[in-house]
Write a structure and sequence with these properties.
This protein has 14 helices and 23 strands. Helix 2 (45-64) packs across helix 10 (321-332). The protein has helices spanning 14-23, 45-64, 80-85, 88-91, 113-118, 161-165, 168-175, 220-237, 285-294, 321-332, 379-390, 404-414, 424-429, 450-460; strands spanning 27-29, 41-43, 69-71, 93-98, 105-107, 132-135, 138-141, 153-156, 181-190, 205-215, 245-249, 261-269, 272-281, 300-302, 308-310, 313-320, 333-339, 351-357, 368-372, 396-398, 418-422, 431-436, 442-446. The structure holds adenosine-5'-triphosphate.
Amino acid sequence: MANDQAITDHTITMEKITSLAKRRGFVFQSSEIYGGQNGAWDYGPLGIELKNRIARNWWKEMTQMHDEIVGLDAAILMHPRVWEASGHVENFTDPLVDCRNCKARFRADQIPFENIESKTCPECGGELTDVRTFNLMFKTNIGPVETEEEKNVIYLRPETAQGIYINYKNIIQSNRMKLPFGIAQIGKAFRNEIVTKNFIFRTCEFEQMEMQYFVKPGTDEQWFDEWRKRRWAYYEKLGVKMDNLRWHQHGPGELAHYAKDAYDIEYLFPMGWKELEGVHNRSQYDLTRHTEYSGKDLQYIDQEDGNKRYIPFIIETSAGLTRTLLMLLCDAYDEEKVSAKDAGETEGSAEDWRTVLRFHPNIAPITAAVLPLVKKDGLAELAQEIRAELREDFATDYDQSGAIGRRYRRQDEAGTPFCVTVDYDTKEDGTVTVRFRDSMEQVRVPRAELVSRLRQEIKAYKRTK
Ligand code: ATP
């Protein structure tokens, strides 16, 4: 077998994703040598590359591709009044119940209502406690003295959005922005989540990619529809299996306190349909509240409409970066039967299974791996030279150990779309073999054309499997 473990059942499970992620250095449990820290994860060499690429791709789509969207990187620590104004101090709570018997902890809104009414644990049938509300914000003290006094209280931000709202006037003034315009931001957010299962799906420390779009009142519904379309198209462009995505509109009981309308994009994860991104019409709520709490006038002066003053509406697109990474791992994951005819890739057995991550080349952690067919006869040195020619333009890897089929499998598992193999013909005629991850097809390409050929392949990439 080319794979480390025999694969017998080919359903995609969260266990398989978690195990591949750890084995290949995408994601490790935080503080593992101390028994692990709940709700926190560390991104290894492939994981950080993947995360950075997702972030860069989103940033490009949301800023570079639009004239009227600019970026921001606000501080995680903000004035505590921000969270009073935003409603988080008062409303950002989850209802919590514990089982007195098995000690399991549940979000009361995520277990059947009958269990809450009858106070019975859905897992062991034991007695449940009363429902308590629990604020999800991490609260700590700022300054050298730890005190209970409210004036030293500071929060780790539970969302990146508020940093944008409190800078909206600065950005209008410094960049002469006119409505409609957007502000994009990527950064860490922290929530004291009660239940943190399913790997990196729900964690206490995570990253968000948010864009807040400021529009004239009355145009908000039109912009809301437009941003729903654009966000859907974004996932299509990323090569995500679109049958695994769907919209979920928030019903009246589900709408957040700030929202006029809200849709989630949900993905069919191995554990079921779950939220990936929210597109929200946040109305005038946030800017009105910040006006009230800060005493500053946050109205927009519309020079194109007789200097009218008003508070803009805000359309928000809010995606989890780390949750997108999990989605892309699940979406890219495939186990495929490989037949003996796939030149030299089956290690002598009649057939074999390979595990492959079919990432879009724009987000794959490694774009091209350079592999000398053998180490001797100067092929290793030649392969290193070719790698040096590629590394200015692409994220590259070099691997010379083990049979070539095994090395292809290792790159398949890392999601590397192109392998460049250097063999004896390379010495003779200056051509290399480019092996494509998805089809396993191989073509000969002159060394001098390699960079431009890979560029073309990336641009033209369409996922077929
Ligand atoms: P949920 O209902 O899953 O708790 P939410 O509706 O509170 O999420 P939002 O506040 O709308 O989520 O956050 C926007 C996005 O941020 C989510 O769609 C998700 O991708 C991501 N996100 C939110 N909470 C977490 C978390 N604890 N861990 C990882 N990602 C998160």
